[in-house]
Amino acid sequence: MRLTMIYFEDLEVGAETYFGSYEVTRDEVIEFARKYDPQPFHLSDEAAAKTHFGRLAASGWHTAAMTMAVIARHVVEDEQAGLGSPGIDELRWTKPVYPGDTLHVRGKILEKTPSRSRPEIGSFRTQTIVINQDEVPVMRFISIVLIRRRHGPEGA
Question: Which of 18, 20, 14, 21 shows the shortest CA–CA distance to 106?
Fold first, then answer.
């Protein structure tokens, strides 16, 4: 755990972070699919075998949720002064995720911008890449994150 809170001023464009990993389980893939994405290839080995997946595959939305769990745990542990996100861009699911996979989540800060209308906050854009245990990328996206500033514009 960090000793100090991370603010907008502490962020460096180009900095990369390893957020952590997530082990994908069969039970969780099926449970998520039952609740949120009940397509047959997310629920049944037999149905998935008849598709390009070849076997039971996690929903892309489940992959996004697992990724968010990894990022959120890291941000809470590192005590970031984050204020949420207004959205993501360029979400791509590049390969299927299967039970037994281990997902690794990395991010890179692309740019940061102080708010013009709210001097107490700024934002940054980050590219997130999720790879599996074989180092194959399975998902990527760019997100916009809001974060508090340590000081207003006069102290930045």
Answer: 18
149: β partners: none
Tokens linked to 93: 């699911």
**Residue type, position 118, single letter:** R
Asked if pLDDT for residue 145 goes beyond 70, the answer is: yes
Three-state DSSP state, 68: helix
Q: Longest C-alpha distance within the chain, in Å?
A: 62
**What is the overall mean pLDDT for the chain?**
92
Are the CB atoms for 88 and 65 separated by under 8 Å?
no
Q: Which two tokens stand for residue 62?
A: 């489940």
In one letter, which amino acid is 58? A
Which pTM does this prediction carry? Answer: 0.88
Cα separation, 58 vs 3, whole angstroms = 37
Domains and CATH numbers, the chain: 8-148 (3.10.129.10)
Q: Which amino acid is at 127?
A: Q
